[in-house]
Amino acid sequence: MSVRAPESIDCDIHPAVPGLQALLPYLDDHWRETIVQRGMHEFSSIAYPENAPITARPDFRVNGGKAGTDLDQLRDQALDRFGSRLAICNCLYGVQLLFSEDMAAGFARAVNDYMAREWLDREPRLRASIVVPVQNPEMAADEIERCAKDRRFVQVLMLVMGDMPLGRRIYWPIYAAAERHGLPIGIHAGSGYRHPVTGVGWPSYYTEDYAAQAVAFQSQLTSLICEGVFSKFPELKVVLMESGFTWLPAHLWRLTKYWRGLRTEIPWTDVAPIEIVRRNVRFTLQPIDAPPGDTFARILDHIGCDELLLFSTDYPHWQFDGDAALPEALPGDLVRKIMIENPQQTYPRLLKEAVR
Amino acid sequence: MNVQVAVREAGQQAVAQAIADCDIHPYPKSPKALYPFLERRWQRHLETYGLRTRQGYESGPAYPKGQPEAARRDAFPPGGGKPGSDLDFMRKQHLDPNHVALGILNPLRSGQGLQNGDFAHAYCRAVNDWQVAEWTGKEPRLKASVLVHYEDGPGAAAEIERRAGDANFAQVLLLSRTAEPLGQRRYWPIYAAAERANLPVGVHAFGYGGYPVTGAGWPSYYIEEMVGHSQCCQSLLTSMVIEGVFEHFPRLRVVLIEAGFAWLPALKWRLDKIWGRLRDETPHLKRPPSEYIREQVWITTQPVEEPEPRKHLLDTIEWIGWDRLLFATDYPHWDFDDPARALPLPFTDAQHRRVFLDNARTVYGLAG
Amino acid sequence: MSKHVVAPVRELPPGSRKLVQVDGRPIVIFNVGGEFFALLNRCPHQGGNLCEGKLIGLVESSEPGVYRYSRHGEILRCPWHGWEFDVRTGKSWCGPERIRTKTYEVGIEPGQNLVEGPYRAETFAVTLEEEYVVLEV
After folding, report:
1. Which of chain C's residues have a Cβ under 8 Å away from the Cβ of B11?
2. Which fold has domain B13-363?
């Protein structure tokens, strides 16, 4: 469905760091020198092999460069094409894969400063997620404090697979800092590759790796709910990005069933999982893992809530052809909710702007 | 949509009709119950070193169960022994009142996944012999599973060949959490042997592959492990499809056991989409993933998902296929599904028969 | 509503329970610290026999890591899926407004004004001093 809703908000686009060289002006002396002294390679994650089809739609590829590195193309193909008033940049340059906490923190700082200067300063419609060194949650909280001063940072970015399930208390300094500043936690597809990407071992194919992302989101949603993250941080919002969402109803049916019998193990989870999701969890639209026809509508009916979906193009990833970012024949008020109201309600910093 | 011939009251159907239960867990009466089937060398080994899998406790799991022995509290036989260890009590409490005409035995904690591969082979052989001697040989309604040390593909194939043609056995049994995802080539000798023997391969939740039970690390709680069987099953099924197990073994039937079923449609849709986009990575696949699943994969109902309203499950079953579902209770475990109450849906007669009996007879080759 | 004699009080000491059939309905009666409660013996979830369930306390929590335990022995956990029911009200601890097992009034009546029940009055030597557990169904 080709939709241009004025004032729509694209909640997941991927401007890219062209390379380590681009970060040099934003690194302190020690890390700048480290890149050269140690012959460091690019932080290119195998989650998105550069020439793989999903990584960039053919017409979104940049001549002679990495997809997502050309601002003019991004303006034309992501912002103008869909009439988006705002778009949230989730930079996937792989600092989360490093093992050294200090190195990760140094490069996360550089990526955030790079995004602010080279993208946000140049295009007023862009907003960004704060890349954090998840390897050390206290240092990640420090980076949140630092970047939160710039109100164009509207979210904290984490990857769906890391060292530990994201509900675990070890990560709570990150959630405390985010809640304090009214910043949602945006969990995006991609792994830190600390473990096999499935609970049953390492797969052989990239196809399986990409399929595994949706499965990991299910595990993480379970973790967030069962660990009581939203009991501890009731105002915290979590956005699952590039996660798919058609798995959600079946997952909640299962989780709720077990919660009813095993509540005593996690007594702080004192409302049903669907209530927690309604209050605290959102999903970006792409990819829509459903066949054409009435499946999308049936799934929304199963979910029973129209506030969960946030419009996204996932630019430049190849999730749809042409302008078909939305399913066919959606009612107008649902389109409005997905493209405008739900994102505004989720990102307080965007809502404040709209009010102003 | 099928025309509803009769909308039955929940509670009336299973009382009147015979059913298949595709997941029953027998248990040895005592640690020594397997000794008649286990060489002395392995009896001594068991007594000295125990059963060592890829997890740390000698006895009991690091995710303690929700109920003792993970069982219904009323399933402890009055005469003593663990739940599932007393055939007479199983008859009285479950097989008879629930009209179980066909029960598939899936023994757990049975030597699969042991670190010591030789011991695993011996123990699995012993459990296979024990199933015949103590269960299927005494109770014609029950069928056994061929347990194998799946981490040794050729060795496992040999055990399958040993049991092929023996009508006591209805399927080969694997566990879900293995050293590599189950689609990988090291497991293909198992599929080859099962296909040759015309035995379905059942994959049951649990096992310890040696990795964290999610791709994101180890969760804290038992409830997360239990919910997580759905995720593990999605990953192993993805592996089987994408690696080409179904393309390579077109007559192979796979039964997914005790991971629920409502997650299957969304997985199929996602796999079709990704396969379509990344087709050049998997030239060995000639058809969309959902087609392989539609034709060669069956799935048990337990633990049944519980939407409100329950009738959402009718959409789910339409998306999966009425011929794919296999009713199971998981007796004697605590998340047992009661045949009269677990699926309170307005089935037609034909739908009910398929889910509760005929699909099982078809997949296990016992139709008629 | 009618009253049914179900057992002499002495057959139901504190900590014990009794399963009875009244008008074709299986009902389990508990003596919790001298107080009597009776529930329909069928879990509203999938029909598990509540008489086989354990009586536990109530664990609540104000935040993750905090476990506050109270009401020892007043929560009945279904022997199957572990659903928790408050023996006083039948309310379930997950969605109390929606899921509830049926409760019945239980009182103790002196020997004289009794309606015939599963225990026929003549079965027990009735004295004026003796007390019966009487069920109102």
Report:
1. 47
2. TIM Barrel (3.20.20)
